[in-house]
Amino acid sequence: MRDVFEIRAQDAGGRVGDLHVPRAGVTVETPALLPVVNPNVITVDPARFAEFGAQMLITNSYIIKRDEALASRAREEGLHDLLGFDGAIMTDSGSFQLSEYGEIDTDTEEILRFQRDIGSDVGTPVDIPTPPDVDRERAEEELRTTQERLELAETVDVGDMLVNAPVQGSTYPDLREEAGEHAYGTDLDVFPVGAAVPMMNDYRYDDVARAVAGAKRGLGSDAPVHLFGAGHPMMFALAVALGCDLFDSAAYALYARDDRYLTVHGTEQLSDLRHFPCACPICTEHTPEEVRRMPDAAREELLAEHNLHVSFTELRRVKQAIRDGDLLELVEARAHAHPRTLDGYRAFLDHARQYGASDPASKDTFFYASAESARRPEVLRHRERLERLSPEGHVLLTEGPRHDGFDECWYVKPPFGPYPRDLSEVYPLTAETPTNMDREGYEAAAKGVARLAGEHSDADFTLAHESWPADALDYVPPRVATVDLAEDLLTGPEEQTE
């Protein structure tokens, strides 16, 4: 792998970074969205993509190669002049057509040389995009074929063109991890998580999250990751938090063709809209009724422009959230707008320990917004750090005031659990939490108490809580004395013994 990616800011698995594309002579800021351009069906002129914020696009070299006139023009003019785009251009290889039709009339060596010859900046070998839910034997066999083709791609003279190393493995996270490790060990440059489109088309964001998390475990932390086909803005925040740096969107054009209007919460039919819930130029200058009355081509172009505006606006919002340290607050807000996105966020939280390893130790205020907040990486990391502390003697863990009868007095705060008073102003313990905490928050705090008591068996603990639910208190070990401050008077350890 060439040194082409620099990370500038990070939050959870999300990164703001610089992808250096030497052949184009540009640096692309990530996370980056690559509009998909079908050279035979152009909805929005690629020369205008910079107006929306695009620094890079993706097109299909196989489609160009099969069209003699297009292929001739591409060789003579170069891909940038053919499409009228000054930024970086990535080309796909025909693997999508392979997955759709079962065969294509090219191979890795031939298509990489063609991509090089037409001036592609980032090329792609012919991998095998194994669909979801196939039997393991097929997934393993096709993964071996993809790995052989990545090794072959290393031997092709591509000049200064970067080359993708797709990470396959179907819906088997361990195969995705193996594929990521193999791909990262090659001399290739960018690492797309492949064959996710069927899962995203069915809103299986939980399976997408597991596939990406598996791939990330195999890839190095400096690997730029592309999530092929992730073009809907409703899942950008989640995909970035999972560690994806590049996305490509055909949705902006395909959805427009069917009169579908993208939002960060889902998709609306133009026929159902009486008002545009957006402040982009298209939505402020037109009404839904005006757009509905337009000729097909004009209507399609305007909807595609809106779809690009809303997509790039969301991506800028994600970048700022990373820099502000509140990416997971944005993920959570988006997750609760759609049940399937919530599934994806919960699958991300299943890997909280993995993403906690790259999460900054200090950032902006932690906001507890729902039961899912109790499973965030910061909560888990705080609980694991309790083993570094050394409470001694009789220790009070309290939600209320201190008591002089104890050797030490610690605070306890859902969802984090216990912590020394000196850490009260340290992230994430400065968190904003609701007055009416949910059961999951109390349970997370109780698990923190249990972790502390388990790590320090020589100390004696008393938990003074404010009416925690019985389900949460079940996690507290019997050796920890408990006092409900709403009902009982807190006494010192000597009085408890009496």
UniProtKB/TrEMBL annotation:
Its EC number is 2.4.2.48. It catalyses: guanosine(15) in tRNA + 7-cyano-7-carbaguanine = 7-cyano-7-carbaguanosine(15) in tRNA + guanine. InterPro entries: ArchSynthase1/Queuine_TRR, TGT-like_sf, TgtA, tRNA_ribo_trans-like. Binds 1 zinc ion per subunit. Pathway: tRNA modification; archaeosine-tRNA biosynthesis. Exchanges the guanine residue with 7-cyano-7-deazaguanine (preQ0) at position 15 in the dihydrouridine loop (D-loop) of archaeal tRNAs. One of its GO terms (biological process) is tRNA wobble guanine modification. GO terms for cellular component: cytoplasm. Residues 13-339 form the tRNA-guanine(15) transglycosylase-like domain. Zn(2+) binds at C278, C280, C283. This is tRNA-guanine(15) transglycosylase. Keywords: Glycosyltransferase, Metal-binding, Transferase, tRNA processing, Zinc. Belongs to the archaeosine tRNA-ribosyltransferase family. GO terms for molecular function: pentosyltransferase activity; zinc ion binding. Its cofactor is Zn(2+). The active site is at D92 (nucleophile). Signal peptide: none annotated. HAMAP family: TgtA_arch (MF_01634). The keyword Disulfide bond does not apply. Substrate binds at D127, A195. It comes from the Archaea.
